[in-house]
């Protein structure tokens, strides 16, 4: 995980760590004071002194002197405390990465829970009551949505859809199995029990089933937090993660079902049947709501070309509304959110500016990161807060049953699923899937929601839930990384999505669709193709503004890739090579078929040697060629007719050249110049001789050589240094239009 | 997908089944389709393929159809094109897309993969010289973009160039400036397609 202090040495880290500790202590003490004073309503305490303004009676202070310095905490209490919590969370996050080696051994989630325990302990230690931070409303309406939206918006659609069947089976059947297995066996154990069973035997079957349904759902927050750090291959990641997202529908239905039943106390077959129906309603209804809002958002984004600044806001608002609307009808809010994000993304991204895209990405990552941190800290605090009712039998049986149920469920289901899958799941895969079934804060919040009147055994449940959560997060979370190494599970491939992959993916898609058509079989390629065509013909026209609705995906991808490379080049000062997996000296000229009549001077040596003089000579020789850098420049023949682009791309080219040539020979990386032979249509070696003259003068200062693009032979412009600095910015600013394509970024691992 | 319309013991079926790995049932289904496409004749011609409506939307339709008439795909070490194919050749070509059976050894799996990639390679290498040259690759990209309405030849060229450069970088690594990269050989192709195949489904569940 990238640390912000990458350029500092170990001493820098320690210094930073020390500073963070100081900050934390300060903050902690302020926090304790804040919590302490919040519980006191009268001004007569040692802390606040006599000037604390109360709600009433502050007006008749005629006898007192005018308070020059006053203390009024009550007014800002709530926002202040919230800010303190968030600040604490963020500082913790900072701190973990400064401590060497810690983040490699212990996953962040564990550390955060420990911090929460500490904070809770401190608060309790000072004699105050721990604030009930794990309020279910707070959790479900504020903390959870950013995480789910982040997951849904950046969901890799292709692997998700390809494995949808498997994911659904795990999510639905697996969760049902877990719930009934755990619930049923727990009931059995409670009935049999030992002498403490007098408490336990009061727990009815329905309550046990309800508990089972709460505890059986794999938690997306925990899974995200842990899996982020282990970088397993995409398939496993999407299986476990997809399962954790989709099982929300099952959890919602089961929860309400059993809650209803235990409240009323009678179960009829009709109710059971209605339960099954309600599952479909909840799931599909949630998705429908999400899709609706997604389309609305896409449609809105079509008209935002004049108000770019609020574009991200629409994305967030519509998604949140989707979540809340689903919650109104007791539909699955998580599925609504995922559907909304996934549906709106391709269209919104085609419409919004590049900056808005960056904004959305970073805001989502920021919010979800903070949310996740807060959730784990609150879990720790809530553990300290209690109230607890520890029952050895119940807790240990629960933990064991959860594990056993998960393993049996995964193995059994995989056996069935493998009959239908083409890429079978191996035993190793099954182990990871089973082991990755972490429980988290959702289970706790659901338990917290239970009302004491209906569920006298609420505390037992809560204690058991917390124990299971701790067990999965700590034990499984900490050991999964070494286990992944031990079992040599396939890791995520680091190779970036290349243009070749894109070409061949499309090619294969069309090929397979064609074969399916030829053999008359309407397989899933056929329907996918039909959907794509429908999308292109009707939907894109509606939802994407202007020219971009007609841009084929391949070209969009190519532009996006070029853009990325260009930005990278500018940001790094031109010292890097094109991001390909293998450093190589192959350049365009090696590929272009050499026309037989080209004169000798066009031979270029793209590789710079260490010797400065040789370098200069080579630079000169290089510059005798056409210098249109196809790969790292904006192609003049881009689809988007942006009036600024033409002029600026030339300046940009020059900037690139200057950067390349300014490389210090002592740099570690072997600097590469990508040059290519120009197209045979415009030989203008004659014009370059002029440049040669100019270049000669300039080269003494090593300022770099100005190359003119072959298309404008008459203009030998030499922009000054200041212009050069401004150009890329101008370029960036003006390029408000080309947004990224529908394909996903290689940015999944942003959460450090 | 329909009952067998012929007895499983037909001798030519067993031959084909052994050669291509299809089951009798699947071959039966394919035979039915063959008859449908060829209007009950013995051979299929290119026009028969052109009649398939659904194929009309496919941008690489021409190349797919050509692949059926390419002798290199018949596993008989032939070369060149034919004008019409019989049922046997039809099944052989289709066998490239058969889902792998459960009891395949690793070696067999590797072999079928190679065959599939060879098929793909043959589709690209139209002049049959054993390499995919830049021209041929450009043609591939142009075809892919042809149905999208905007025929931007320059962009297609650039995309193909960039892709070719990438393959060259990955396959060859180091090249002197005056060396010339002839084209993608089958070995290079294998190398860089392998990991694409790892991530994508190649088979379609025919029959």
Automatic annotation (TrEMBL), chain A:
Subcellular location: Basolateral cell membrane
Region (Disordered) residue spans: 586-608, 679-752
Reaction catalyzed: Li(+)(out) + H(+)(in) = Li(+)(in) + H(+)(out); Li(+)(in) + Na(+)(out) = Li(+)(out) + Na(+)(in); Na(+)(in) + H(+)(out) = Na(+)(out) + H(+)(in)
Domain of life: Eukaryota
Coiled-coil positions: 610-637
Residue stretches of biased makeup (Basic and acidic residues): 712-730
Domain Sodium/hydrogen exchanger regulatory region: start-end pairs: 581-689
A GO molecular-function annotation: sodium:proton antiporter activity
InterPro entries documented for this protein: Cation/H_exchanger_CPA1, Cation/H_exchanger_TM, NaH_exchanger, NHE-1-like, NHE_CaM-bd
Membrane topology, from the record: Multi-pass membrane protein
Residue span, Cation/H+ exchanger transmembrane domain: 87-485
TM region(s), chain numbering: 16-36, 105-126, 138-155, 167-187, 270-300, 320-343, 364-386, 392-418, 430-448, 460-484
Major localization listed first in the record, in broad terms: membrane
Biased composition (Acidic residues): 742-752
Keyword Calcium in record: no
Keywords: Antiport, Calmodulin-binding, Cell membrane, Coiled coil, Glycoprotein, Ion transport, Lipoprotein, Membrane, Palmitate, Phosphoprotein, Sodium, Sodium transport, Transmembrane, Transmembrane helix, Transport, Ubl conjugation
PANTHER family, alphabetized: SODIUM/HYDROGEN EXCHANGER (PTHR10110), SODIUM_HYDROGEN EXCHANGER 1 (PTHR10110:SF59)
Similarity annotation: Belongs to the monovalent cation:proton antiporter 1 (CPA1) transporter (TC 2.A.36) family.
Protein name: Sodium/hydrogen exchanger
The species this protein was found in: Neolamprologus brichardi (Fairy cichlid)
Automatic annotation (TrEMBL), chain B:
GO cellular component terms, semicolon-separated: cytoplasm; lamellipodium; nucleus; ruffle membrane
Broad class of the protein's primary localization: other
Single GO MF descriptor: calcium ion binding
Keyword Nucleotide-binding appears in the UniProt entry: no
KW Membrane (keyword) present: yes
Subcellular location field: Cell projection, Lamellipodium; Cell projection, Ruffle membrane; Cytoplasm; Membrane
Domain EF-hand: 112-147
Membrane topology: Lipid-anchor
UniProt cross-references to Gene3D superfamilies, sorted A to Z: EF-hand (1.10.238.10)
Keywords: Calcium, Cell membrane, Cell projection, Cytoplasm, Differentiation, Lipoprotein, Membrane, Metal-binding, Myristate, Nucleus, Protein kinase inhibitor
Pfam families listed in its UniProt record: EF-hand_1 (PF00036)
Record-level GO BP terms: cell differentiation
Highest taxon above the source species: Eukaryota
Similarity field: Belongs to the calcineurin regulatory subunit family. CHP subfamily.
Protein name, UniProt field: Calcineurin B homologous protein 3
Organism lineage: Eukaryota, Metazoa, Chordata, Craniata, Vertebrata
């Amino acid at each position: 995980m990238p640390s912000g202090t990458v350029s500092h040495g170990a001493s820098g880290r320690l210094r930073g760590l020390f500073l963070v500790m100081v900050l934390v202590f300060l903050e902690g003490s302020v926090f304790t004071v804040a919590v302490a004073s919040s519980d006191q309503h009268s001004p007569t305490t040692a802390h606040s002194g006599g000037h604390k303004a109360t709600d009433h009676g502050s007006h008749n202070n005629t006898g007192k002197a005018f308070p020059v310095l006053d203390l009024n905490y009550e007014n800002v209490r709530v926002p202040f405390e919230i800010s303190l919590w968030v600040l604490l969370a963020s500082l913790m996050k900072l701190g973990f990465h400064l401590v060497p080696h810690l983040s490699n051994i212990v996953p962040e989630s564990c550390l955060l829970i420990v911090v929460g325990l500490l904070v809770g302990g401190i608060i309790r230690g000072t004699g105050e009551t721990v604030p009930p931070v794990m309020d279910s409303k707070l959790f479900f309406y504020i903390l959870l949505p950013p995480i789910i939206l982040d997951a849904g918006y950046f969901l890799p659609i292709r692997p998700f859809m390809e494995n949808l069947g498997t994911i659904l089976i795990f999510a639905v059947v697996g969760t049902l199995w877990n719930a009934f297995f755990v619930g049923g066996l727990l009931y059995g154990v409670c009935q049999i029990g030992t002498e403490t069973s007098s408490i336990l035997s009061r727990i009815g079957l329905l309550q046990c089933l309800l508990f089972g349904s709460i505890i059986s759902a794999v938690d997306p927050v925990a899974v995200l937090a842990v899996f982020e750090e282990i970088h397993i291959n995409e398939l496993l990641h999407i299986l476990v993660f997809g399962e954790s997202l989709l099982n929300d529908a099952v959890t919602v239905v089961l929860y309400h079902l059993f809650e209803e039943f235990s409240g009323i106390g009678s179960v009829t077959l009709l109710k059971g049947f209605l339960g099954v129906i309600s599952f479909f309603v909840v799931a599909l209804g949630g998705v429908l709501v999400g899709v609706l809002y997604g389309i609305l958002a896409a449609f809105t984004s079509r008209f935002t070309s004049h108000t770019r600044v609020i574009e991200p806001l629409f994305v967030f608002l519509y998604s949140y509304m989707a979540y809340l609307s689903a919650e109104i009808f007791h539909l699955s809010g998580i599925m609504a959110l995922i559907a909304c994000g996934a549906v709106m993304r391709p269209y919104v991204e085609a419409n919004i500016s590049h900056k808005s895209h960056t904004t959305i990405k970073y805001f989502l990552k920021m919010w979800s990161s903070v949310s996740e941190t807060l959730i784990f800290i609150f879990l720790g605090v809530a553990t300290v807060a209690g109230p607890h009712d520890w029952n050895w039998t119940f807790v240990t049986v629960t933990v064991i049953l959860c594990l056993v149920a998960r393993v049996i469920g995964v193995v059994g289901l995989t056996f069935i699923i493998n009959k239908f899958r083409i890429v079978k799941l191996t035993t190793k895969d099954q182990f990871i899937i089973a082991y990755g079934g972490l429980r988290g804060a959702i289970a706790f919040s659901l338990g917290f929601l239970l009302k004491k009147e209906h569920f006298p055994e609420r505390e037992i449940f809560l204690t058991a839930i917390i124990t299971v959560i701790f067990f999965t997060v700590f034990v499984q979370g900490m050991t999964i990384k070494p286990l992944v190494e031990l079992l040599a599970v396939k890791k995520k491939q680091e190779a970036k999505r290349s243009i070749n992959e894109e070409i061949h993916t499309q090619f294969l898609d069309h090929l397979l669709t064609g074969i399916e058509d030829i053999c008359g079989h309407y397989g899933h390629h056929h329907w996918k193709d039909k959907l794509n065509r429908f999308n292109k013909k009707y939907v894109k026209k509606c939802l994407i503004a202007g020219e971009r609705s007609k841009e084929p995906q391949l070209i969009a991808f190519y532009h996006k890739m070029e853009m990325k490379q260009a930005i990278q080049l500018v940001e790094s000062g031109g010292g890097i090579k094109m991001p390909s997996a293998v450093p190589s000296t192959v350049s365009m000229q090696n590929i272009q078929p050499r026309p037989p009549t080209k004169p000798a001077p066009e031979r270029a040596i793209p590789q710079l040697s260490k010797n400065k003089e040789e370098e200069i000579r080579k630079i000169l020789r290089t510059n005798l060629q056409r210098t249109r850098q196809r790969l790292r420049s904006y192609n003049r023949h881009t689809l988007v007719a942006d009036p600024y682009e033409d002029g600026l791309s030339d300046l940009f080219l020059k900037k690139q050249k200057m950067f390349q040539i300014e490389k210090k020979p002592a740099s570690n990386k072997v600097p590469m110049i990508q040059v290519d032979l120009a197209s045979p249509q415009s030989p203008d070696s004659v014009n370059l001789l002029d440049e040669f003259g100019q270049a000669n003068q300039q080269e003494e200062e090593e300022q770099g050589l100005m190359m003119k693009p072959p298309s404008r032979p008459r203009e030998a412009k030499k922009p000054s240094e200041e212009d050069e600095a401004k150009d890329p910015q101008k370029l960036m600013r003006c390029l408000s239009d080309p947004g990224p394509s529908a394909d996903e970024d290689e940015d999944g691992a942003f959460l450090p | 997908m329909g009952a067998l319309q012929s007895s499983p013991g037909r001798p030519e079926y067993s031959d084909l089944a052994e050669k291509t790995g299809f089951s009798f049932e699947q071959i039966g289904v394919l035979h039915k389709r063959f008859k449908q496409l060829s209007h009950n004749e013995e051979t299929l011609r290119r026009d028969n393929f052109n009649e398939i409506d659904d194929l009309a939307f496919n941008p690489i339709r021409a190349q797919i159809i050509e692949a059926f008439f390419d002798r290199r795909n018949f596993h008989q070490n032939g070369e060149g094109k034919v004008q019409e194919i019989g049922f046997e050749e039809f099944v052989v070509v289709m066998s490239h897309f058969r889902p792998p059976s459960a009891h395949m050894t690793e070696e067999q799996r590797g072999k079928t993969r190679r065959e599939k990639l060879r098929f793909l390679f043959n589709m690209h290498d139209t002049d049959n010289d054993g390499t995919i040259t830049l021209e041929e690759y450009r043609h591939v990209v142009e075809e892919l973009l042809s149905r999208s309405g905007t025929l931007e030849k320059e962009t297609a060229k650039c995309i193909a160039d960039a892709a070719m450069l990438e393959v060259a970088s990955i396959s060859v690594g180091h090249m002197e400036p005056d060396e010339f990269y002839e084209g993608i050989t089958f070995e290079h192709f294998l190398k860089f397609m392998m990991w694409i195949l790892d991530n994508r489904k190649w088979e379609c569940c025919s029959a």
